[in-house]
Amino acid sequence: MARIAIDMDNVMADLTAHMIHLYEQKHGVRVTRESLNGHPDGGGFPIEGETLKFIHEEGFFRSLPVMPDSQEVIKSLMDKHEVFIVSAATEFPLSLKEKIDWLGEHFPYISWRNVVLCGSKTIIEADYMIDDHDKNLRYFKGERLLFTAPHNILLNDYKRVNNWQEVAEYFQLTPALVK
């Protein structure tokens, strides 16, 4: 049984889609996901730095949309492996309770014992880590899977997974999960 550490933002929760939506609501300008490719996390919007303000607002992390297929694939991973949800959440203190509540709503089968909210992921020991940030994967000693997000599109240093169906294929989950 392998131990798998899974990030939340831009892996389980579609932070980018949420920022695009909030930006459009506030400024009336629709930004495409593709136009954000290659920009730093939260960058690439017409008003630089604007979306980074969103993450400090109450309710931001509680209202993130769920990544397609993540619920089913993570549940299947838990049937065969030891899964931990790992989020560098302490940088955003408002996010702590919101992330716990979000997980309870969308992933009720994940026990509180399998949730790690930390500052630095360098303390995490597992066989695999699925994350969208180089800063979290760089020092990880196990197998590193880079989950595609606009800010990491130019990275080539890791095995890349573009979506949860590719995660299911990588871990050879039942064909029913693979479309």
UniProtKB/TrEMBL annotation:
One example of the protein's molecular function in GO is: 5'-nucleotidase activity
Give TM regions. Answer: none
Q: Which Pfam families match?
A: NT5C
BP GO terms, sorted: pyrimidine deoxyribonucleotide catabolic process
Q: Which SUPFAM superfamilies has this protein been placed in? A: HAD-like
Classification via Gene3D superfamilies: Deoxyribonucleotidase, domain 2, HAD superfamily/HAD-like
Q: Which residues form a coiled coil?
A: none
Where on the tree of life does the source sit, at the highest rank? Bacteria
Q: So where's the catalytic machinery, residue-wise?
A: 7 (nucleophile), 9 (proton donor)
Family in the record: Belongs to the 5'(3')-deoxyribonucleotidase family.
Q: This protein is called what?
A: 5'(3')-deoxyribonucleotidase
| The organism of origin for this protein | Chitinophaga jiangningensis
